[in-house]
Each structure stands twice: as structure tokens, then as C-alpha cells.
Amino acid sequence: MERFLSEIEGILKEERVNYQKVEQAFLVTFRDKEIRYNVLIFADEHMAVIVGKTDPPFIPTPEMGARLLEENFRMNFAAYHLTQDNEVIVTSVLRSECIRESFRRNFYIVLSFLKRLGESLAS
Amino acid sequence: MRVLLLDDIEAILKELGLSPLREEDMLVLLIGEGGREVVVYIIAEEERKVAYVLASAYPPIKAEGKELDILRASWELVDRGVPCKVGVDKDSVVVEVDLDECHIKKDVLLESIYFAAEGMLTIADKLREGESPEAAEGESDT
Fold it and tell me: Could you tell me if residue B136 is left (phi over 0), alpha (psi between -120 and 50 degrees) or otherwise beta?
């Protein structure tokens, strides 16, 4: 598990991403205008998971829910979901053994999904 | 001659004892459990070396009016270790697992087919739970 975490840490450093190590995970936060974006990354020996959300949270209407489901179909390697608190989150999952090949792409796709939420929140 | 990704996937599935149908540029599997059926499609994007494992209920489930329940059910799936994404194509619910070249291996392919099919069956059950008995009865008559 440590090997996969240090691979992720290496990629975050290469990409010059500011992160905090929180126990066995990495927390990436950044702000754009009024929206804060939080991304948590963790990995075990099988899977690496990237989870992102906005602050303030994105609470969708049914119409927005329909749009998010269409985007889930159209876009790849990440997905919108709705938590029990009615907050939209973005996830991306990859095999830990593929971190070197796939993590960078999935991380940026999660950011792109989050930015879309942020743009909707701001409009 | 370059070996196509879809050929590789077909060979792996056959090695696993599965018998996919080859329909032009996709592989199709019909998976049944307890009288419920799921169609699994595997599509490859050869240039990008990416494959998509998609599951759809048979007959397809309509998303209209249930979008938030579907998004909520998709989080429950991920939260219990079934990583997949749930989308809608032409108002029908589709569960998908995306695989790049690194992920196209025997065990991951089999797991992805399971995740997509299990995800679809779970979503179908969740949506039926939320229906009124009359609506559920109406659906079974069609």
C-alpha cells in the first residue's frame, strides 16, 4: 500500500499539485472565485480512489440530475453520484497497479468534472 | 497485421469460458440471474486503446423522473465496493466501467463485467422498490 501511496505522491509532486497528506490519503484543495474544490485520494493494494466535491455543495434539481446522468454516459473515467446528504460528488476508481499509467488522466478528469459543477454553481 | 483490442478482449473472454456474440464492433453477453436479464456490451476504441463495458437491463429501464434516485443508487454501489458509473443514454439507464490498456487483463475484465451487471441489477431493484405496487405491476405486464 505504501508503494502505491508514494507513487501517487510522486505524481502529485511532478504535477506541482499542492496537497496535504492526511493519514493514508492525500487531500488536494483549491479555490476558484467563490467555490472551493476538495479532492481526496486514497489507495490500498487493489484500488486507488479519487473523490471530489465542491464547497458549497452542489445540490441538484431533478433536471440537473438528468444532465449529470447524461454527462456520466458521455464522459469517461469518472462519474457524478449523489450522497445521502443530497450532495453531488465525483469519483474515479483505478487499479493500484495502474497508478503510473492511469492516475494522472483520472485525476485531471475528476478536476474537470468538478469544474463543471463549479461553473453551474456560479451561474 | 495489428491485433485489434476487441480481438484481444474476445480471446480473453473465450479463455474465461464465456461466449460473447460479435456484433460488428462490439461484443455482447447476455447475463441472467433469478429471472432478470442484463445485456453487457463491450466496445473498444482502437486508436485510444480504451474499452467500455456497458450493462443495460433487458428490457431497458427508463430514467425519466427517477434521476436523483439513480444518482443516489450509484453512490451506494461505489460505497459498497462496486466501482462503476451510471449514466443515461436516450432515457435508458446504462451502467459502465471504462478500461484503458493497463486495465485490459483477464481478472479486471471479468471483474468489470461483474461490476457492470451487478450494478445494473442493483439499480433495477432500487428503482422497483421505489415504485408503487400498481406501477410495478403495470411494468411487469408489458
Answer: alpha
A77 touches chain B (CB under 8 A): yes
Prediction ipTM score: 0.93
- C-alpha cell at position A73: 454516459
Question: Which class does domain A2-122 fall in?
Answer: alpha beta
Q: Tell me the three state secondary structure of residue B46.
A: coil
**For B125, phi and psi rounded to 5 degrees?**
-60, -45
Interface probe for A, chosen from B41, B61, B94, B98 (most Cβ of A below 10 Å), is: B98
Q: Which residue of A has its CA nearest to B109?
A: A95
All structural domains of chain B with their residue ranges: 5-131
Distance CA A92, CA A77 (A): 6
Q: What's the CA gap between A117 and A2, in Å, rounded?
A: 32
Contacts of B108 in chain A (CB under 8 A): 95
* Alpha helical stretches, state H, chain B: 5-15, 67-79, 106-129, 133-141
pTM, full prediction: 0.91
Domain B5-131 class, CATH top level = alpha beta
- Cβ separation of A69 and B96 shorter than 8 Å? no
Backbone angles phi, psi at B86, to 5 degrees: -110, 125
Chain B CB within 8 Å of residue A74 CB: yes
Distances (CA, A) of B123 to B72, B118, B130: 10, 9, 11
Residue B83 grid coordinates: 466501482
pLDDT in tens, B17-44: 999 999 888 999 999 878 889 999 999 9
**Domain-by-domain residue ranges, chain A?**
2-122
